[in-house]
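Hi all, posting the design record for the shared folder.

TITLE: backbone redesign
STEP: 1 of 1
STRUCTURE INPUT:
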């Protein structure tokens, strides 16, 4: 089933990108001084949002196509897990994004480092959703 395999591939790419973000990019960002950290964060956030959002949609579409071909509810569950990254991002992460974007246009405020650190901790939630989706898809394909 090609659509199921594509769902697993896209979900793995989503999880891999989220893993890179929390284990590589975030620690490197936190090693910078406050002003450089905020300047780096803003364009990185836009690119990361586009990448993870696009991979979530591609994963969900492939998973839903696999569900429509085989009617195995696990395809639907995996698709919903990765799609949950959208409301998670919107309701949990975007409020911090807005504070950080405001700080990037002016000078960083005193708590910018704390906000970026907390933002990085919240990104683990996206990794968890991606890994859960991969696990469900791999289980379905086994």
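Okay, here is what came back for every position:
SEQUENCE:
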């Amino acid at each position: 089933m090609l659509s199921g395999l594509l769902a697993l591939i896209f979900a793995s790419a989503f999880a891999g990108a989220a893993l890179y973000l929390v284990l590589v990019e975030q620690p490197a960002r936190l090693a910078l001084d406050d002003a450089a950290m905020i300047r780096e964060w803003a364009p990185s956030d836009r690119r990361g949002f586009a990448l993870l959002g696009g991979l979530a949609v591609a994963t969900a579409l492939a998973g839903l196509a696999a569900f429509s071909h085989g009617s195995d509810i696990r395809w639907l569950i995996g698709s919903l897990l990765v799609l949950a990254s959208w409301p998670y991002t919107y309701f949990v992460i975007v409020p911090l994004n807005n504070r950080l974007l405001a700080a990037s246009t002016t000078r960083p405020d005193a708590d910018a480092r704390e906000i970026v650190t907390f933002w990085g901790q919240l990104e683990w939630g996206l990794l968890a959703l991606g890994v859960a989706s991969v696990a469900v898809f791999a289980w379905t394909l086994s």
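COMMENT: The chain has one domain: 2-141.
Let me know if anyone wants the other runs.
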